[in-house]
Amino acid sequence: MNEIPSSPNETPAPKASIRWGRILAWIALFALLVVVALVLLQRQQGPVAVGQTVPAFTLTTFDGQQIGAEEMAGKVVLLNFWASWCKPCEQEAADLESVWRYYQPRGDVLFLGLAWTDTETASLEYIEEFDITYPNGPDLGTRISQAYRTTGVPETYIIDKNGLLSYVKLSPFTSQAEIKAAIDPLLGP
Amino acid sequence: MRIKIILLSYLLTLVMGVTVVEIVSAQQPTPSDDQVNEIAKQLYCPVCENIPLDVCPTTACAQWRELIRQKLADGWNEQQIKDYFVLQYGDRVLGTPPPEGINWLVYLVPPIAILAGVYILFRAFRSWKRPIQSDNLQPNSSEAPQSTDPTQDEYINRLEEEVRKR
Q: Which chain A residue's Cα is nearest to B108?
């Protein structure tokens, strides 16, 4: 293309400042794209993978008990995300409670229930309805579910005695045998 | 004696009446759906993303609306209820994220992008206008513009020749 010459009287534009402006604009745009990419990447990651160290958390139960890393150390931990409005959660509630009662006397298995985006009144009614005795509490601020990158409820994560994730179930358990089959190999002889 | 009994019964009736009135006035009236929805429309349930709580049809959202009603009946104000929901379910229940941390991008990027767009348009318009002002190109209105491009002339000649052949 032929460039049309500009007027000789016109003062030359401050090219250096424009160049810096452009560089800064490109840097800002690039930084924004990086942030967006990181957020998208994080959302696409899916749940914590088997074999990974699980995110640390402290659960405050509905009766005010604090359960953290110290209480979980050296134990097989079954972490169940549920909600009172979740019908599939009801399918496995009785089985989870029965299996908890089966393992509880051993002392090296801990079941934890996390009520996800649930109201306290409805959660307590659910716990009473299914006569759940293992520790349960709200997922305050949905921090624990976000750390585990859950996709809904019910979801169950079984953590071995070394704090590594050994089993993930993204749907309800269909039998007590299925739950036991996931826990037994982690208990040793 | 009879007067004393009558006075005593009047006094008892008065005391009972005042007590009943106090009990009734201590109870908050049940908040209406409009009052509940006024707060609910500013909140979003993580279960059904992008649907405001006031129109969300799920059981979870219905429970949340009942919770708002309960808190209003307990005398909580709008801000206290929103703070409670943030504490329980996280920032993402809010329609507008609180201006902190990475959330600042939501508030800063759009105005910066608009300003940058206006600046780019301003520069573009100015660069389009400048050559016309700077050059003394004043075409003669009585004559039609003539092309000085020899390649274009050649093209026109060939075109005319082709038309004549037909």
A: A32
Q: Residues of B with CB below 8 A from A121's CB?
A: 67, 70
Q: A123: burial class by Cβ within 10 Å (0-12, 13-18, 19+)?
A: buried
pTM: 0.70
Across the interface, which of B47, B66, B109 has its CB nearest the CB of A117?
A: B47
B30-95: in CATH 3.40.50.800: no
- Domain range for A82 is 59-186
Angle between helices B78-89 and B33-40 (to 10 degrees): 50
Q: Is A92 found in the same domain as A3? A: no
**CA distances for A59 relative to A68, A140, B17, angstroms:** 6, 9, 49
Question: What confidence tens digit (pLDDT) does each residue in A76-102 have?
Answer: 999 999 999 999 999 999 999 999 999
Sequential DSSP letters for A69-98: HHHHTTSEEEEEEE-TT-HHHHHHHHHHHH
